[in-house]
Amino acid sequence: MPYHSYIFFDAEPSINTLSKTALEKSRKSFIACIEKTTEVRAAAYATLAFKSGTRFMLHLNAKTPDAIQLLVRDLLHTPLGAHLRVTYTLLGLTRASQYNPKHPPKESAYEAPHRYLVVYPFTKTTEWHLMPYDERRNIMKAHVDVGRKYSANISQMLLYSYGIDDHEFIVSYQMDSLEEFQSLVMDMRSTLSRRYTKNDLPIFTCIHMSLSEALDMV
Q1: Residue-range definition of the domain harbouring residue 130
Q2: Are 5 and 208 contacting, i.e. CB atoms less than 8 angstroms apart?
Q3: Which of 11, 23, 167, 199 could bond to 18 as cystine, CB 3.0-4.6 Å?
Q4: Quick one: 188 and 126 in the same domain?
Q5: How many whole angstroms separate alpha carbon 92 and alpha carbon 70?
Q6: pLDDT tens digit string along 39-58?
Protein backbone atom coordinates (compact mmCIF):
# COMPACT_ATOMS: atom_id res chain seq x y z
CA MET A 1 0.00 0.00 0.00
CA PRO A 2 1.82 3.10 -1.23
CA TYR A 3 0.37 5.95 0.84
CA HIS A 4 1.82 6.75 4.25
CA SER A 5 0.85 9.48 6.67
CA TYR A 6 2.36 10.39 10.02
CA ILE A 7 -0.32 12.06 12.15
CA PHE A 8 0.79 13.76 15.37
CA PHE A 9 -1.74 14.43 18.12
CA ASP A 10 -1.79 16.65 21.17
CA ALA A 11 -4.42 16.83 23.91
CA GLU A 12 -6.73 19.76 24.54
CA PRO A 13 -6.90 21.12 28.11
CA SER A 14 -10.43 19.71 28.29
CA ILE A 15 -8.94 16.21 28.58
CA ASN A 16 -8.29 17.00 32.25
CA THR A 17 -12.01 17.36 32.93
CA LEU A 18 -12.64 13.67 32.19
CA SER A 19 -12.88 11.22 35.04
CA LYS A 20 -10.52 8.26 35.04
CA THR A 21 -13.40 5.99 34.03
CA ALA A 22 -14.53 8.28 31.21
CA LEU A 23 -10.97 8.66 29.92
CA GLU A 24 -10.43 4.90 29.86
CA LYS A 25 -13.73 4.37 28.06
CA SER A 26 -12.87 7.02 25.48
CA ARG A 27 -9.48 5.40 24.84
CA LYS A 28 -11.15 2.06 24.17
CA SER A 29 -13.54 3.60 21.63
CA PHE A 30 -10.60 5.28 19.88
CA ILE A 31 -8.79 1.94 19.63
CA ALA A 32 -11.95 0.20 18.40
CA CYS A 33 -12.29 2.78 15.62
CA ILE A 34 -8.81 1.89 14.37
CA GLU A 35 -9.19 -1.85 14.77
CA LYS A 36 -12.43 -2.04 12.80
CA THR A 37 -10.97 -0.56 9.62
CA THR A 38 -9.72 -2.95 6.96
CA GLU A 39 -8.36 -0.29 4.60
CA VAL A 40 -5.70 1.32 6.80
CA ARG A 41 -2.82 -0.16 8.77
CA ALA A 42 -1.81 1.74 11.89
CA ALA A 43 1.26 1.77 14.11
CA ALA A 44 1.36 3.84 17.31
CA TYR A 45 4.23 5.81 18.84
CA ALA A 46 4.68 8.02 21.90
CA THR A 47 6.19 11.46 21.33
CA LEU A 48 5.46 13.15 24.66
CA ALA A 49 8.46 15.20 25.90
CA PHE A 50 10.32 14.71 22.61
CA LYS A 51 8.49 17.30 20.49
CA SER A 52 6.42 20.12 21.93
CA GLY A 53 2.79 20.09 20.90
CA THR A 54 2.62 16.30 20.56
CA ARG A 55 1.61 13.39 22.79
CA PHE A 56 1.49 10.49 20.35
CA MET A 57 1.74 9.71 16.64
CA LEU A 58 -0.09 7.32 14.34
CA HIS A 59 1.71 6.01 11.27
CA LEU A 60 -1.10 5.21 8.83
CA ASN A 61 -0.66 3.23 5.62
CA ALA A 62 -3.29 2.68 2.91
CA LYS A 63 -3.87 2.15 -0.80
CA THR A 64 -5.41 5.61 -1.13
CA PRO A 65 -5.05 8.92 0.74
CA ASP A 66 -8.84 9.04 0.98
CA ALA A 67 -8.87 6.04 3.33
CA ILE A 68 -6.38 7.75 5.63
CA GLN A 69 -8.39 10.96 5.66
CA LEU A 70 -11.64 9.16 6.49
CA LEU A 71 -10.05 7.24 9.35
CA VAL A 72 -8.63 10.41 10.91
CA ARG A 73 -12.03 12.07 10.54
CA ASP A 74 -13.67 9.16 12.34
CA LEU A 75 -11.03 9.23 15.09
CA LEU A 76 -11.65 12.92 15.73
CA HIS A 77 -15.37 12.15 16.04
CA THR A 78 -14.80 9.63 18.84
CA PRO A 79 -15.23 10.71 22.49
CA LEU A 80 -11.44 10.88 22.88
CA GLY A 81 -11.04 12.70 19.57
CA ALA A 82 -13.15 15.54 20.93
CA HIS A 83 -10.27 16.26 23.31
CA LEU A 84 -7.45 15.90 20.76
CA ARG A 85 -6.01 18.09 18.03
CA VAL A 86 -3.77 17.24 15.09
CA THR A 87 -0.59 19.32 15.33
CA TYR A 88 1.63 17.91 12.55
CA THR A 89 1.06 15.79 9.46
CA LEU A 90 3.47 14.25 6.95
CA LEU A 91 2.15 12.64 3.74
CA GLY A 92 4.13 10.65 1.19
CA LEU A 93 4.13 7.53 -0.93
CA THR A 94 6.52 4.74 -1.75
CA ARG A 95 7.92 4.37 -5.25
CA ALA A 96 10.97 2.92 -6.95
CA SER A 97 14.25 4.71 -6.24
CA GLN A 98 15.25 7.43 -8.69
CA TYR A 99 18.80 6.10 -8.67
CA ASN A 100 18.16 2.36 -8.45
CA PRO A 101 14.81 1.72 -10.21
CA LYS A 102 15.16 -2.06 -9.92
CA HIS A 103 15.20 -1.84 -6.12
CA PRO A 104 11.63 -2.25 -4.80
CA PRO A 105 10.21 0.30 -2.36
CA LYS A 106 10.91 -0.64 1.24
CA GLU A 107 7.97 -1.09 3.60
CA SER A 108 9.90 -1.76 6.79
CA ALA A 109 7.65 0.02 9.26
CA TYR A 110 5.23 -2.87 9.75
CA GLU A 111 7.58 -5.82 9.34
CA ALA A 112 9.49 -5.79 12.64
CA PRO A 113 9.26 -2.44 14.41
CA HIS A 114 12.20 -1.44 16.56
CA ARG A 115 12.04 0.44 19.85
CA TYR A 116 12.60 3.88 18.32
CA LEU A 117 11.47 5.66 15.18
CA VAL A 118 12.97 8.91 13.91
CA VAL A 119 11.09 10.57 11.05
CA TYR A 120 11.55 13.89 9.29
CA PRO A 121 10.77 15.62 5.98
CA PHE A 122 13.46 17.03 3.75
CA THR A 123 13.87 19.00 0.54
CA LYS A 124 16.81 19.21 -1.86
CA THR A 125 18.12 22.44 -3.37
CA THR A 126 17.32 23.71 -6.87
CA GLU A 127 21.00 23.23 -7.70
CA TRP A 128 20.60 19.53 -6.93
CA HIS A 129 17.66 19.07 -9.27
CA LEU A 130 19.45 20.89 -12.10
CA MET A 131 22.56 18.73 -11.74
CA PRO A 132 23.06 16.00 -14.40
CA TYR A 133 21.50 12.71 -13.38
CA ASP A 134 24.76 10.73 -13.37
CA GLU A 135 26.38 13.23 -10.99
CA ARG A 136 23.43 13.01 -8.61
CA ARG A 137 23.49 9.22 -8.75
CA ASN A 138 27.20 9.09 -7.89
CA ILE A 139 26.72 11.44 -4.95
CA MET A 140 23.81 9.38 -3.68
CA LYS A 141 25.82 6.17 -4.00
CA ALA A 142 28.42 7.55 -1.59
CA HIS A 143 25.62 8.63 0.75
CA VAL A 144 23.96 5.20 0.65
CA ASP A 145 27.28 3.42 1.20
CA VAL A 146 27.59 5.19 4.57
CA GLY A 147 24.11 4.03 5.54
CA ARG A 148 24.89 0.43 4.63
CA LYS A 149 27.49 0.29 7.40
CA TYR A 150 24.62 0.59 9.89
CA SER A 151 21.99 -1.45 8.05
CA ALA A 152 22.26 -4.46 10.37
CA ASN A 153 20.68 -2.51 13.23
CA ILE A 154 18.97 0.46 11.57
CA SER A 155 16.25 0.21 8.93
CA GLN A 156 15.16 3.04 6.66
CA MET A 157 12.10 3.88 4.60
CA LEU A 158 11.99 6.71 2.06
CA LEU A 159 8.73 8.32 0.96
CA TYR A 160 8.19 10.74 -1.92
CA SER A 161 6.15 13.88 -1.22
CA TYR A 162 6.74 15.90 -4.40
CA GLY A 163 3.66 17.98 -5.13
CA ILE A 164 1.50 16.53 -2.35
CA ASP A 165 3.06 18.11 0.75
CA ASP A 166 5.33 21.03 1.67
CA HIS A 167 8.52 18.98 1.27
CA GLU A 168 9.96 16.57 -1.29
CA PHE A 169 10.71 13.50 0.82
CA ILE A 170 10.04 11.88 4.17
CA VAL A 171 12.66 9.59 5.63
CA SER A 172 12.11 7.34 8.62
CA TYR A 173 14.62 5.25 10.54
CA GLN A 174 13.93 2.48 13.02
CA MET A 175 16.49 1.38 15.59
CA ASP A 176 16.95 0.09 19.12
CA SER A 177 19.79 2.48 19.95
CA LEU A 178 19.51 6.23 19.51
CA GLU A 179 23.26 6.49 20.12
CA GLU A 180 23.98 4.30 17.10
CA PHE A 181 21.52 6.27 15.01
CA GLN A 182 23.22 9.50 16.04
CA SER A 183 26.54 8.07 14.83
CA LEU A 184 24.91 7.29 11.47
CA VAL A 185 23.64 10.86 11.14
CA MET A 186 27.03 12.31 12.07
CA ASP A 187 28.71 10.16 9.41
CA MET A 188 26.16 11.16 6.78
CA ARG A 189 26.70 14.84 7.52
CA SER A 190 30.17 14.54 6.00
CA THR A 191 28.97 13.23 2.62
CA LEU A 192 28.72 15.55 -0.37
CA SER A 193 24.94 15.13 -0.56
CA ARG A 194 24.61 17.26 2.57
CA ARG A 195 25.61 20.34 0.55
CA TYR A 196 22.41 19.99 -1.45
CA THR A 197 19.95 19.65 1.44
CA LYS A 198 17.75 22.73 1.61
CA ASN A 199 15.81 21.76 4.72
CA ASP A 200 15.36 18.68 6.92
CA LEU A 201 13.22 19.86 9.81
CA PRO A 202 11.30 19.18 11.99
CA ILE A 203 12.73 15.94 13.35
CA PHE A 204 10.42 13.66 15.32
CA THR A 205 11.79 11.07 17.75
CA CYS A 206 9.20 8.46 18.73
CA ILE A 207 8.92 5.33 20.86
CA HIS A 208 7.01 2.39 19.39
CA MET A 209 4.13 1.23 21.59
CA SER A 210 0.83 -0.58 21.39
CA LEU A 211 -2.17 1.64 20.74
CA SER A 212 -3.21 1.30 24.35
CA GLU A 213 0.23 2.27 25.65
CA ALA A 214 0.50 5.25 23.30
CA LEU A 215 -2.89 6.55 24.41
CA ASP A 216 -1.67 6.44 28.01
CA MET A 217 0.37 9.50 27.00
CA VAL A 218 -2.91 11.46 26.76
Answers
A1: 109-203
A2: no
A3: 23
A4: yes
A5: 17
A6: 999 999 999 999 999 999 99
